[in-house]
Design goal:
Layout lengths: L1 E2 L10 E3 L21 H12 L28 H6 L3 H4 L3 H22 L8 E4 L3 E3 L5 E3 L5 E3 L4 E4 L3 H7 L7 H20 L15 H19 L12 E2 L3 H13 L2 H8 L14 H14 L16
Parallel strand pairs: 2-3, 3-7
Antiparallel strand pairs: 1-8, 4-5, 6-7
Helix pairs in contact: 1-9, 4-6, 6-7, 6-8, 7-10, 8-10
Length: about 300
């Protein structure tokens, strides 16, 4: 995947909290709308395997053991704004790459909502390092992974997570795979705007649970955006993203597979697969629903809550 080098980037929806003194470890982050981070799942499964059980674990209910962070983090967008001006920087700098993907996501969903007579409100995306204090979901460390907070309608991501995907999970990586992760969190924002998130009660788990349905739908929404990625225009009228290859798509699917509940449990959480604890869906399910979105390009095909739907 490449970006149009002459395209202008818009950093107005990005808050850069890196280096802002987010605080220490301890407390809890109360997450919702399927916002539990991928690395957080590993923490949970390891605790469960060691006999700690799932006490206090819920979505949205938080991850026990993450402590309160200092208040007063201030966003400084000047560095990102000065560094990330065009697609040329997006092709060489990770933070600018994420800015470009965010611009594309906002462009697609703005048009998609308008086509159905609705108004799309973009989320803010926060870059943080180490730990962060959210506006509505409490405190979190990088161990939680990327997450969406429905209470403040914002996405939070420590950019070092993408290295975790490759080193700990063995994912192929690459810009389109990274874009899938961001697009998935945006999928939770779409669910929040449409009221879908409110259909799921905290603490649900299992292969057909509401939590799994939310995650699979977010995967599908990510695939829908991916289908349209090379046609979403910038303010100049030219597509921001170019040259998406089959290898890019395969890398995104590979990432989806490696963050399936069964893969995490068997490879990173002790070796035993327990479907009753599924909250994000199996590798096969995640591949299926991302592919459904990518192949159809139609958000209406992402109804994982439909009566009798085959989740895979």
């Amino acid at each position: 995947m490449r970006f149009d080098e002459g395209a202008d980037l818009n950093t107005s929806s990005i808050d850069d909290l890196r280096g802002s003194g987010g605080g220490g470890v301890g407390g809890r982050v109360a997450l919702g709308g399927g916002g539990l981070g991928i690395v957080g799942l590993i923490i949970y499964f390891v605790i469960a395997q060691l006999g700690g059980g799932g006490g206090g674990f819920s979505v949205p209910g938080g991850i026990p053991g993450l402590g309160g962070l200092e208040q007063g983090q201030q966003a400084d967008t000047s560095a990102v704004a000065s560094a990330c001006r065009t697609g040329e920087q997006a092709n060489t700098q990770l933070d600018c790459e994420v800015v470009a993907v965010v611009n594309s996501l906002d462009g697609y969903w703005t048009d998609a909502f308008a086509a159905s007579g609705q108004t799309y409100t973009p989320p803010r995306t926060n870059f943080f390092s180490g730990s962060v204090n959210t506006g509505g979901c409490g405190g979190a460390t990088s161990d939680v992974g990327p997450f969406y907070c429905p209470a403040d309608a914002e996405v939070y991501i420590d950019l070092t997570f993408f290295q975790e995907l490759e080193t700990r999970f063995g994912a192929q990586g690459g810009p389109f795979a990274r874009a899938y992760v961001i697009a998935h969190e945006y999928g939770h924002h779409i669910q929040n705007l449409l009221g879908t998130s409110s259909r799921v009660q905290g603490g649900e788990s299992g292969p057909t649970s509401g939590s799994v349905r939310l995650e699979l739908q977010a995967d599908c929404y990510a695939g829908v955006w991916a289908n349209h990625a090379t046609s979403v225009p910038t303010r100049t009228g030219r597509p921001l993203i170019t040259d998406v290859t089959q290898e890019d798509v395969a890398a995104a699917i590979d990432t989806a597979e490696r963050i399936g509940d069964d893969y995490i449990q068997s490879n990173l959480g002790g070796g035993r697969v327990d479907e009753s604890q599924f909250t994000h869906g199996s590798s096969a399910q995640r591949e299926k629903w991302y592919s459904t979105g990518y192949e159809t390009g139609d958000p209406a095909r992402c109804d994982t809550f439909a009566r009798g739907v085959d989740l895979g």
